[in-house]
Fold this sequence. Notes:
The chain is of the alpha/beta class.
Amino acid sequence: MINWGMKLVKSVFKYFSYDSAVQPAMLKPPLVSVLIPAYNRPHYLQKALQSALDQTYEPIEIIICDDSTNDEVKSMMIPYIEKYPNIKYVKNPSVLFLRNWHKCFELSSGEYINYLMDDDLFEPDKIEKMMSYFLQRDDITLATSWRQIIDGEGNPLPAIPETMKLYEQTAIVNGIELGNYVLTRCRNVIGEPTSVLFRKKDLVEPFGVYHGRQYVLLNDLVSWLSLLSKGNAVYFAETLSYFRRHQDQNSLKVPIVAKGVDEWLECIDSARKDGFLGNDELLKASLNAHREYLQSFRTWYDYRDFRQAADEAMRRIESRLHSL
Length: 324
């Protein structure tokens, strides 16, 4: 059983506190692009968009690429486009799926990027607090925070292992150590796309692409690993974003979840090219965690194709472990 308590987390990470009151010493703050890939959820998108408009940091541009199969989002956006010049809205002629994320990125003009899922929310000071660290330090390539899970109505939900608080105070975390922590537990404790702010130039491949492969379920995690291989992370111990869980969520759909069966093994191998899992002990821990992940999901998802994929992946893991 994985112990997700503070004692274990502190034993894994070497960290130090940082003054959260630090103020950027720049006359003209850099532009931050908030990227929203939208899809058929105007009622949630309106709330997400408002949380971006309510940010205390300036300047911000908001890029919305609409992948919807109808015009409901387009109709909802009309008054916002007329009122806010910093919103750029594009309706895709056909569904792009993951390429819609790339399109948002390509249309952005900001030096910094924060994705915002169309069903998630920002705290008003999220961007301001995270940017204060980027503007004072050049070793940070990723900023994230403790995030709260909410339901479809916005009510708080209990934490899951991925969203347990890592620290009781804001901390700077070594990038390789944070990546190793994630990989040896098979848990994305860094956060969903909404959680993370990063410098645009530091992401050398399109979002969700890692060493040439486009990931589906792990598209956020592999981008975090790419960023962490280049520097450190700042982790805020306060809630700065909200991750909404509901039955229409893509990450809960069986075909997408099944992709993760294959993606985790590929992610492990690719991450080693970037300096993660640098010895056999860490690699074994990562493979064993992935095996535990597969066993639990095999029980939860009673679908033949998923079980077959999980069984094949576990055979590959056993072979890898036997060779070490």
